[in-house]
Amino acid sequence: MQTHPVTPSKQEALRLRMLALGVREEEIEETFVRGGGRGGQKLHKTSSAVMLFHRLTGIRVRCETSRSQALNRFLARRNLLDRIEERRQGFAAARRSAAEKIRRQKRRRSRRAKERMLEAKHRHAEKKGDRARLEW
Questions:
Q1: How far apart are the C-alpha atoms of 49 and 33, rounded to whole Å?
Q2: Per residue in 22-68, pLDDT tens?
Q3: Residue 108: its pLDDT value, please?
Q4: Residue 5: count of CB within 10 angstroms of its CB
Q5: Beta 49-54 vs 59-63: how paired, if at all?
Q6: In which band, very low, low, confident or very high, does the pLDDT at 1 lie, cut at 50, 70 and 90?
Q7: Which one in 1, 25, 103, 128 has a CA-CA gap of 20 to 30 Å to 15?
Q8: Kind and range of the H or E element at 56?
């Protein structure tokens, strides 16, 4: 079994990303808990799940995707940085506006809008029908 599941290049990329976002290790509170779900006795005996809490933003992340604690630590930090970046760049607002756009698209049309749409379709069909009747 491999003892270091995360390559040094990925660890370095994570460190550089933390520097770019201005997140320091001292700001992160890290706790290890027992994982849940499938995995057997090994999973239930060891504390491989990682919980991170960023004190400045109040963001809390839990990662238990792997049975390896080292890999979960890496993935949890990556998820935490994703959430911090989303908050800073306003992705939450973008997500909300995208959801609102979909809601508007799915909303039923008003009677007048439906009539206008159907009239336009009929006019288009008549134009196409006229084209078909022309003989060369």
A1: 5
A2: 999 999 999 998 877 776 777 778 888 999 999 999 999 999 888 88
A3: 86
A4: 16
A5: antiparallel
A6: very low
A7: 1
A8: none
In the numeric block, the tokens 């933390």 are attached to: 18
Cα(121)–Cα(129) distance, integer angstroms: 12
Q: What are the pLDDT digits (tens) for 73-129? A: 999 999 999 899 888 877 767 778 888 999 988 888 889 999 999 999 999 999 988
Distances (CA, A) of 128 to 115, 116, 117: 20, 19, 17
Instruction: Choose among 122, 56, 123, 45: nearest CA to 83.
Output: 56
Q: Does residue 6 come out as left (phi exceeding 0), alpha (psi in the -120 to 50 range) or beta?
A: beta
Residues 50, 51, 57: CA angle, nearest 5 degrees: 145
What does the alpha-carbon distance between residue 83 and residue 102 come to, in Å, rounded to a whole number?
23
Classify residue 59 by its DSSP letter. Answer: E
Within 13 Å and on the Cβ side, how many CA atoms surround 127? 6
